[in-house]
Amino acid sequence: MPRDLSYWNRYSGLPMTVAEKVLVRQDFRDLILTSLAPRPGDRVLDLGCGTGPHLPVLRGAVGADGHVLAVDYSPKMVAKAALRARAWDNVEVRQADATAVELEPDSYDAVLASFSISATQDVPAVVDTVHRALRPGGRLFAPDVRLPSRGVGRVLGLVYRGVARWTGVDVLDTVRARFGSADVVTGKGVPIVDLPAFAPVVMITAVKDPAT
Ligand SMILES: C[S@@+](CC[C@H](N)C(=O)[O-])C[C@H]1O[C@@H](n2cnc3c(N)ncnc32)[C@H](O)[C@@H]1O
C-alpha cells in the first residue's frame, strides 16, 4: 500500500511532537548550522518540512534578507508549519509533492531534507527535485534512515517497511548517484550522530557541482 497523505496527516499529531523533541535539541540545531551552513541572505528550501520544527533555526540563519521555502505534501503538516510561521516575513510554507513540485531551477543556496526523502514513495525523483533546485555549489543536508540489508539492519528494515511503508530505496546511494559524491557527517558529542555501527540513521551532505 503506498504511503499516502492520510498516513502523514495521521502522524502530524502526537508522534511528530515526540519526534520533534529529539530534532529540536540544541545539538541537532548546531548540526544543521554546521552541516547545511545557511548564511545571511541565503534562499533555503526545507523539503518535507513536516510541522516545521527546523524553521526557527533556518529563518534565523538567513535573516531578514534571506528566504526559507518550506514544502510538505500533507495538509495537516503544512497547516501546523504555517501556523508556526505566521508572523515570519522570511518564511513561505507551501503544500506540494516533492516528487513533482516545480521549483525555480538553480535557485536555492541550501536544501534541508530532514528525515523526509526516505518518507516519500519515489526517492530518486525527490533527489532530482533537490538537485535541480540547488544552484551550482549549493548544499544539501539530509539526515535520514539507513538500514543495511544484513543483520540487525535487515530486521529493522523489514519492520520499518511494514510499519512505515518505507520503499527500501537507499537515500545515501541515490544522493551519491545524482550528485556524483556525498559525505556522511560523523562525530562525537552529537548524540544523534554518535550511534553504534548499525545506526539506522545517516547524516548526508552533498554539494551540487559548481561547474554544472
Ligand atoms: C518523518 S517526517 C519529517 C518532518 C520534518 N522534516 C522533521 O524533520 O521533523 C517526513 C515528512 O515528509 C513528508 N512527505 C512525505 N512524502 C512527501 C512528498 N512526496 N512530498 C512532500 N513531503 C512529503 C511527510 O508529510 C512528513 O511531514
Automatic annotation (TrEMBL):
MF term (GO), any: methyltransferase activity
Domain Methyltransferase: 44-138
UniProtKB keywords: Methyltransferase, Transferase
InterPro entries: Methyltransf_25, SAM-dependent_MTases_sf
GO BP of this protein: methylation
Pfam family, one: Methyltransf_25
Keyword Methyltransferase: yes
Cited PANTHER family: TRANS-ACONITATE 2-METHYLTRANSFERASE (PTHR43861:SF1), TRANS-ACONITATE 2-METHYLTRANSFERASE-RELATED (PTHR43861)
Name of the protein in its database record: Class I SAM-dependent methyltransferase
Species: Umezawaea endophytica
Phylogenetic placement of the source organism: Bacteria, Bacillati, Actinomycetota, Actinomycetes, Pseudonocardiales
